[in-house]
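Problem: given the chain below (164 residues), write out its structure.
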Amino acid sequence: MKKILFLLFTCACFSKSFAQDWINFNSTEGKFSVLLPAQPKAQTDTSKSYPNYITSLFITRTNTDIFVLGWVDYEEGFTFDEQKELEANRDNFIKAINGTLIETKNVAFKGYRGLEFSAQAGAYFWTSKVFMVGRRPYQLVVGSGSGKASENENKFYDSFTITK
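Solution.
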């Protein structure tokens, strides 16, 4: 019995420490720091029509979850309505995953004006926080293949910080 308890305790400790073994990812260009379960893959897309903009994404996948962090830099002089920009980021994401919006609300995230939403697409349950830092909209996304919110979404969201 003691051996079984010891093995269970050892497994529990190992699992816990393994689950907490995330990396601190910093982006000088993105001006942020965040915890991720692994080194992300970067993607960049440049618009070919007005307004000119560059979208930057960092994507990390685990066996069950997807973590995405991205932002958009618009050409100098282009003006936009912040609320409409937040809503457009939400709507474009839901369209891209062919999902259904479950809930949305305006929030303050880390002191910045933002929007929080959840969506369902197939077996994946998605949560997202979109917020404005100056003229730059950021979007954090967690997708869980379990059909419900990821156990790690708060770790990801809470670790995000804007750097100078």
